[in-house]
Amino acid sequence: MKSSLICVAGTEEIITVNVDLGCRSYPVYVGSGLLNRPELLSRHVHGKQALVVTNTTIAPLFLDKAIKALQQENTEMTLETVILPDGEQFKNMESVIKVFDAAIEAGMDRRCTFVAVGGGVVGDICGYAASSYMRGVNFIQIPTTFMSQVDSSVGGKTGINYRVGKNLIGAIYQPKCVLVDTNTLNYLPNRELASGIAEAIKCGLVKDGKYFEWLENNIQALLARDPIAIAYAIKRSCEIKAGIVTLDEKENGIRAILNFGHTFGHAIETSCGYGNLLHGEAVAVGMSFVFWVEVVLLIVPDLTIFITATGDTIEANEELQEGEELLERANLEEGEEQV
Amino acid sequence: MKSSLICVAGTEEIITVNVDLGCRSYPVYVGSGLLNRPELLSRHVHGKQALVVTNTTIAPLFLDKAIKALQQENTEMTLETVILPDGEQFKNMESVIKVFDAAIEAGMDRRCTFVAVGGGVVGDICGYAASSYMRGVNFIQIPTTFMSQVDSSVGGKTGINYRVGKNLIGAIYQPKCVLVDTNTLNYLPNRELASGIAEAIKCGLVKDGKYFEWLENNIQALLARDPIAIAYAIKRSCEIKAGIVTLDEKENGIRAILNFGHTFGHAIETSCGYGNLLHGEAVAVGMSFVFWVEVVLLIVPDLTIFITATGDTIEANEELQEGEELLERANLEEGEEQV
């Protein structure tokens, strides 16, 4: 995984992580104040129409900045906005329809660009709408939560919840770029920051012991929003994710390792009702459950453990075995990298 | 474009046209009685669950045969069916939702296969649903109309009509295989056969003068459903389409040549109301309009011609110029092939 650090005189550093997927490759830009660097976005917006999708929480904070960044070097750009209600419970077909309708009413053509400004929910809705509007239009991610910056904005998974299922309808659809302005985290509630850190910890656990150790040693700096620690955690998490996505974009095998703790996590999240437990919190509980089962099985190897949370019963042993096989393959297929 | 002819002792010939798209490559099987050859389908169905999507016209004719073909070599296969109402007016989000609901109710997982048995409308709905269900599941096309056999089942374009727009929502999503049993045409109304022939003529016009001549000379044989003529027209049309799709899967350039006559055709089709004019009939009118404009412009070169059919006004001259540029590129980028 190649990353680069570009220092431009008089400006902040920009870290670039490349997601290598042949003709679908794209950069993840990470840095402080990147919403003030319109040249980063203008490289990736080729048409003259853009649709910004955001939510009621994010709009007052960053919508104007995002619009300015999109229009500054592209003065002929016509721009429309969809402001969705905030919350996982709105990650549904109705929200996707709202995005389609706004695009149609604005007369957006095949060369338009959909831009997600917000957390994972906004990115998922906007990305899935982009994958389906006119059989696929350009798409840019501007994630504003730590969770979406370290995880969900990278790798192209988009989707909505449908009836009983989380992310049951969706597409693997890669953005043209991901722009992470770490200043957006200044407005993030502590609980949401901690939830995102859980996904960063997952990255360390599944792929990079040294990064896991680094997270252990720097957890206070992350919680205190130290800009250098935050930028490094985003960079390293994105590198790990990009490396795995490059090997298995469509999740036919190894990419499933990134779901570590998620089977149990999703079950817990659903049983608590969406919005009561944050995604990262559920994943953290899920991961700790995996370790608890591992320890129990060391003591009582023949035990079969079932977990029931949503009506579906999961056999813990089977899940663990699959996870272990994937972990083994992850380290065989891509050498562990130095931090 | 490589095609092959396989003769198996005691059975009919199978023509195979390969659509070369790297890891998304797939075969188009063409022949008489191929629904009686379950080994062709079983090569491409890897999971143990299949969802057959068809309509009320096609179900009494071919559903049992298709189910038998899917289950014969895969006896553990669980199979569900969605029978949609017949007609372009049902190519909408409600039909896609019906497919999702059937898949969810049957507990279909990521390894399931969606199978479209019908014409272009069924293929479009089923294909788009397959592209979005669990972020994309396997998909097989069994086209039963001449239109879908020579054109719409190949190349991965899927989509539904949405509000004012034809195919406004959809995906480019390739099937795992296309199985064309030419016996299905025995039940096709003459008007629909003629509509399909219009798309075959378009293939000749845009890419292969010799094939166009062949169509001129064999039009009576095609209308009389001569099996050899029918099979050859399907083969050659699929080869031409596959060759162009290989160069430009996502229609960023040259693939637009396959829309020859379609800008005007769609306008006429929409203004007549869906279902009153068949797609191929509209395309035929559209193509003949293009030639009429060409002739008029030879006589009065400075004339600017506008056509208004659906409220949108199309400038004919601009359309023609774009079409001519594409035609030139089509012949530069892929050498003309021998029939």
TrEMBL record, chains A, B:
The keyword Nucleotide-binding does not apply. SUPFAM superfamilies: Dehydroquinate synthase-like. Its EC number is 4.2.3.4. Pfam families: DHQ_synthase, DHQS_C. GO terms for cellular component: cytoplasm. It catalyses: 7-phospho-2-dehydro-3-deoxy-D-arabino-heptonate = 3-dehydroquinate + phosphate. Keywords: Amino-acid biosynthesis, Aromatic amino acid biosynthesis, Lyase, Metal-binding, NAD. It comes from the Eukaryota. Pathway: Metabolic intermediate biosynthesis; chorismate biosynthesis; chorismate from D-erythrose 4-phosphate and phosphoenolpyruvate: step 2/7. One of its GO terms (biological process) is aromatic amino acid family biosynthetic process. This is 3-dehydroquinate synthase. The lineage of its organism: Eukaryota, Viridiplantae, Streptophyta, Embryophyta, Tracheophyta.
